[in-house]
Design goal:
The chain is of the alpha/beta class and 222 residues long. It has one domain: Bira Bifunctional Protein, Domain 2 (BirA Bifunctional Protein, domain 2), CATH 3.30.930.10. It contains four helices and eleven strands, in the order βαββαβββαββββαβ. The protein has an eight-stranded mixed β-sheet, sandwiched between helices. The protein has a three-stranded mixed β-sheet with strand order 4-3-5. Strand 8 (126-131) and strand 9 form a beta hairpin. Helix 3 packs across helix 4 (189-204). The protein starts with a strand and ends in a 9-residue tail after the last strand.
């Protein structure tokens, strides 16, 4: 089974992680590093994808924004949200298919939450994971030679009204929310990090090789 390294980055600004993801993606393409998973929380920022820029989507002025190159529209990042960025080479059996990879990541989120008594589901309106008609988890990737950047988010306890006040990925305002707002309380970033790691082997056909907890900003040692 393929192995991957895990980087627990703590709280780091999105633009800093975006630069590090590009560096790691190039190293993975050259086979100089193994598959690598970054887990992080960002200070508040709204990322704006190409579709949102093309469609002229406006973000309220009280939000800091940052353009990105993954698919989709706008995505909120901030406190109470865990972000997982798999810098993976997706070339195992059945993986060289973007829809299949998205499906794998969605399954990973569902399998992570199920032991906690949280039943997430897909919805035909948008990729990601939903509960009670509300989206609390997003998935969006960028590929180069089948090595991915960007990844997934889980909103577990975001500040009241922040993510709900945005038309996330083109959905009507109020559709996106957090698990806490849906009645799932007591979740922490540390708990979700542990659960994501524990379910990765069965969900992603990969096993953890090495952990590192970073106390400084990247670039990190390979």
């Amino acid at each position: 089974m393929r192995q991957f390294n895990v980087i627990l980055a703590g709280v780091v600004e999105h633009e800093i992680i975006a630069t590090e993801m590009k560096r790691l993606q190039q190293l993975r393409i050259k086979d100089e590093i193994p598959d690598t998973l970054i887990m992080v929380e960002h200070p508040e920022v709204v990322t704006i994808g190409p579709k949102a820029r093309k469609d002229g989507v406006e973000v309220p002025p009280q939000f800091e924004t940052s353009p990105i190159d993954r698919g989709g529209g706008i995505t909120w990042h901030g406190p109470g949200q865990i972000v997982a960025y798999p810098i993976f080479l997706w070339d195992l059996d059945g993986e060289k298919n973007v829809a299949a990879i998205i499906h794998l990541l969605e399954d990973w989120i569902i399998n992570t939450l199920r032991p906690l008594g949280i039943i997430g589901e897909r919805d035909s309106r948008m990729q990601g994971i939903w509960k009670a008609g509300h989206k609390f988890s997003s998935v969006g990737l960028n590929f180069m030679k089948w090595v991915s950047r960007h990844g997934l988010t889980i909103n577990y306890n975001t500040p009241e009204g922040r993510v709900e006040g945005l038309p996330g990925c083109g959905l009507p305002t109020g559709t996106t929310t957090s698990l806490n707002a849906l009645g799932e309380q007591g979740l922490t970033r540390e708990l979700l990090e542990a659960m994501l790691i524990s379910t990765a082997q069965t969900s992603l056909n990969r096993t953890v090789a090495k952990f590192s907890c970073q106390s400084s900003n990247p670039p990190w040692p390979n």
